[in-house]
Amino acid sequence: MAQRTALVTGGTGGIGTAIVRYLAGQGHRVATNYRNAAKAEAWRKQMADEGIDVFMVEADVSDPAACEAMARTIEEKLGPIDILVNNAGITRDTTFHKMSYQQWNDVVNTNLNACFNVTRPVIESMRARKWGRIVQISSINGQKGQYGQANYAAAKAGMHGFTISLAQENAKFGVTVNTVSPGYVGTDMVMAVPEEVREKIVAQIPVGRLGKPEEIAHAVAFFTTDEAAWITGANLAINGGHYMGW
Ligand code: CAA
Asked: Less CB within 10 Å around the terminal CB: N or C of the chain?
């Protein structure tokens, strides 16, 4: 398999870590961003102990200038970015009638506007080099909506709108753009949902359990292969049967 340069945003998170591990395991050079230096250093050390060398750049994905600088720094250090996984995301769950503008804006900025901020500085180089793989990590809740997540569901649904437009614009340039929509995976984000609420959600999952981060990473890695060149604009649901769109 060709060794490529990959940027996984939010690599230190639950699903992000699994994606970083998977892509590094395939021999790719992997970079990620971070915001909290202490957390990032502990994570980098954990990865290094596993034999995984991750290039880390301080950048908030909601900040366009920081993302532009991050892309240039990664290019200088690892070479042009071939694989981009827009994975960084946050929740600010509350019912809409109680939601503040800040809770709305934080989620839209970090989950959706980040797709512009991070992808814009890398797309021209992918087009020029006639090869690229972009994967958005959306959510089951962008597909079906979720009580308490008007901000998150709107941003996650928007990510797939971004995917299908970019897929059309960049197909001729060897750049595929796809979405992976995970269901409820056993990460800190999902474990922060109050236990009694979470138990009711898990009871709705036909497979009968939360997902594992590796189960998401496997699919993301699939989209980044040479063999997946004819798959573009897809939205792959990985949710234990929780929501079956078609
Ligand atoms: N459908 C119908 N009613 C619901 C409901 C649902 N799904 N969920 C809660 N309710 C009801 C409750 O039963 C309660 O009713 P009563 O007042 O009659 O008792 C009422 O809503 C509570 O409403 P509040 O306005 O008081 O709710 P709140 O402001 O306290 O917010 C909440 C509650 C934050 C929405 C909480 O229920 C919650 O955290 N829900 C889970 C949200 C969720 O799934 N988040 C996903 C996070 S993980 C993630 O996002 C990753 C991913 O991509 C999957």
From this structure: C
Q: Ligand 1 pocket check: which of 107, 147, 156 to mutate, most ligand atoms within 8 Å of Cβ?
A: 147
For position 246, what pLDDT does the model report?
75
Query: What domain range is 131 assigned to?
Result: 5-238
User: For position 140, what pLDDT does the model report?
Assistant: 98
In a domain, 245, yes or no: no
DSSP state letters, 94-149: --GGG--HHHHHHHIIIIIIHHHHHHHHHHHHHHHHT-EEEEEE--HHHHH--TT-
**pLDDT for 245:** 84
Q: What is the DSSP code (8-state) at residue 226? A: G
Q: How far is the CA of 216 from the centre of ligand 1 (A)?
A: 25
Cα of 203 from ligand 1 centre, angstroms: 15
Indicate whether 128 belongs to any domain.
yes
Low-confidence ranges of the chain (pLDDT < 70): none
Q: Is 167 a member of any domain?
A: yes
Q: Is the residue at 246 inside a domain?
A: no
In this prediction, residue 223 carries a pLDDT of 98
CATH code, domain carrying 105: 3.40.50.720
Chain-centroid distance of CA 134 in Å reads 10
CB 184 near ligand 1, within 6 Å: yes
pTM over 0.85? The answer is yes
Pocket perturbation via mutation, ligand 1, pick of 197, 198, 202, 205 by most ligand atoms within 8 A of CB: 197
- CA nearest to 134, candidates 82, 89, 88, 71: 82
Ligand 1 and 147: CB distance under 6 A: yes
Q: Which two tokens stand for residue 43?
A: 């994570």
